[in-house]
Amino acid sequence: MLERSFTVDVLKVVAAQFIVWHHFSAYGPMADTMTLAWPQLMDWLYRSARLAVQVFLVVGGYLAAQSVMNKPIKHPVMSVFKRYLRLAPIYLLALALISLAVSVSRHSIHASWLPSVPTAWQFVAHALLAHDLLGFEALSSGAWYVAVDFQLYAVLMVLCHTLQSDKHKGLSIGVALLCVVSMWHFNRVDKLDIWAIYFFAAYGLGVLAAWAKRSKSDTAVFWFTVLLCIGALWLEYRTRLTLALVTAVWLVIKPKGMVHWTPMKRVVHRLSNSAYVLFLTHFGVIVLFSAMWNTSHFYDPDMAMALTLFAWLCSVGIGLFLHEKAEIPIHHWVSQQSKMMFLRLTN
Predict the structure, then answer these.
(1) Is the dihedral of CA 328, 331, 333, 336 positive or negative?
(2) Interacting residues of 256 by C-beta distance below 8 A, sequence separation 6+
């Protein structure tokens, strides 16, 4: 189990860094300056590094499936609500911090990528993880993923509750069917990219990868889904789906290593645990460094790269700090309060 966790940790850490660098290449005057000196690098970061979100989707499905493996879902609404309590508190704190960073930087940044002054209803829509569905402008670059992850988890819980049985065969087949329908049709319709069904192709592959070693039938379902995924790529090749497929297959066939902790594994584990907070908060760092760049009147590409590297390190450090000093304490407090509330409701 430790080795599998380390594999997932590595995937999360690497994918998170690619996403952060994609956003560093997409927003701010430092990105524009670096493009003058390294156009090919910046173009690759902008166009290709964002594909790392597919790794997050597969890993998200993988971890969600592990959490419900061999465990009946009797109250799917309660499970979904617990997931909301897991995602939302630090997400809302990050949005508040980013809104503060935007507010203090607005006078020095005049660009379309900077979010508008948030309204009360806009913040409520974000709190409900429905801002895209309701047509509100995003307050942060990572807000859309949190909403989609929540949708995907809700779909999985409904499937687990509806199709669960002693042998799990029906559930695996149901997940595989929805996964195949997504990769053959819905994942090809770009306007559906605010809905879970668009991303279930990658998420479902992660779910099936987690269950693949549970039984021979689950293994067969996974590999049959892989074949159908290859067929979907033949129908319309998508790099994002290819990356999701490779990630899921690797999670299933990866070689076993020695199960022991090392200093490197501990560092990777900490970075993996803080990846969610890093994903949520680094946009605020981009805003603040962009404001500093504009007010300092820098223009040298080497200086832009140096400051971007420093901003990246700051983002990683802030992610670690807020994970350990805010996310974990808030999660523990919310868990205790929710357990007391659930006990009152069931008694």
Answers:
(1) negative
(2) 3
C-alpha angle 17-18-19 in degrees, rounded to nearest 5: 90
Whether the Cβ atoms of residue 206 and residue 57 lie closer than 8 Å to each other:
yes
In contact, 54 and 145? CB cutoff 8 Å: no
Q: Which of 163, 129, 152, 247 is nearest to 200 (CA)?
A: 152
Distance CA 142, CA 125 (A): 15
36-48 pLDDT, tens digit per residue, is: 999 999 999 999 9
Provide the CA 1 distance to its chain's centre, in angstroms.
22
| CA atoms of 208 and 252, how far apart (whole Å) | 9
Nearby residues of 135 by Cβ (< 8 Å), 6 or more positions away: none
Alpha carbon distances (Å) from 191 to 10, 60, 197, 199, 306? 32, 22, 11, 12, 38
Task: Report how far residue 266's alpha carbon sits from residue 288's, in angstroms, rounded to the nearest whole number.
Answer: 30
Cβ contact 283:20 at 8 Å: no
Separation between Cα atoms, residue 199 and residue 320, nearest integer Å: 28
Cα distance between residue 68 and residue 210, in whole Å = 10
Question: For residue 265, what are its two tokens?
Answer: 């594994």
CB 279 within 8 A of CB 142: yes
Whole-number Å distance between alpha carbons of 66 and 162: 18
Its pTM surpasses 0.85: yes
Tokens of 340: 């007391």
Show the low-confidence residues of the chain (pLDDT under 50): 1-2
